[in-house]
Amino acid sequence: MAAATEQREIGQSELERVHGVSFIRLRELNEPVCLKMLSYWKAKRGDRLMPSPDDLRPAEFAPLMPYLLVLQVDHDPFDLTYRLFGENVAISFGVNSGGRRVLEAYPDNPNLNQELFRFYSYIAAERRPFAAAGTMQVAGDKVVRTEGVYMPLSYDGYRTNRILGCSMKYDVDRCDFLDDDPLSF
């Protein structure tokens, strides 16, 4: 039994082991804010593989900005940098990583940096949206439920240049938002 547990832990990603977050199917998304952003992404995409960053109009989703993040995807060499880090995302992580490379975003947790880099790299390579859900430890060692959707954006319609993410966090002990409901605007 101990060998099986050890094997499972070795095979788990840091996100799953420490934070309990893993990919879910898009159709399993329940979070209204995430569903709204996914619908927005699909509408902007049209019949293309993915929409362009230039297609996004922040005024059309302004109340959701605190729950969003945008990553810049550089090629040659490949790298990922947080360009937008919404206020509620920053509060939950205890740091605003806007402008930081993903591999350097959390200096006290290089394993998390590596796992997030792998997570976002996979989304960039696959060129399609992904959802993730589970529990995670946030700033102050509080454990929250989280659900998010991460959607690629492309200037040329083929290569991922940005990733738009939307995530919500809820108190584990209660079923409500950690702050005001963003869809009540």
Describe the structure in your own words.
The protein is an alpha+beta fold. It has a single domain (about 1-175), classed as PAS domain (Beta-Lactamase). It is built from 5 helices and 6 strands, in the order H-H-E-H-E-E-H-H-E-E-E. It has helices at about 1-10, 15-20, 30-45, 85-95, 110-125, and strands at about 20-25, 70-75, 80-85, 130-135, 145-155, 160-170. Strands 1-4-5-6-2-3 form a 6-stranded antiparallel β-sheet. Strand 4 (about 130-135) and strand 5 form a beta hairpin. Mean pLDDT is about 85; it is low at about 1-10 and about 15-20.
Throw out a few tags for this protein.
alpha+beta, 185 residues, disordered N terminus, six-stranded antiparallel β-sheet, globular
CATH homologous group name: PAS domain
CATH level 3 topology: Beta-Lactamase
Q: Spans with pLDDT under 50 lasting ≥5 residues?
A: 1-12, 14-18
Q: Number of DSSP strands?
A: 6
Order of helices and strands: HHEHEEHHEEE
What's the level 1 CATH class?
Alpha Beta
The chain-level structural class is alpha+beta
The helical percent reads 25-40%
Count, helices = 5
Give the name of the CATH architecture: 2-Layer Sandwich
Give the C-alpha Rg. 16 Å
| Structural domain tally | 1
Instruction: Please indicate the percent range of residues in DSSP E strands (runs of 2 or more).
Output: 25-35%
Biggest sheet architecture: 6 strands, antiparallel
- Order of the strands making up the biggest sheet: 1-4-5-6-2-3
The shape is: globular
Assembly state (oligomeric):
single chain
Q: Please give the alpha-carbon distance between the first and last residues.
A: 52 Å
- Mean pLDDT comes to 83
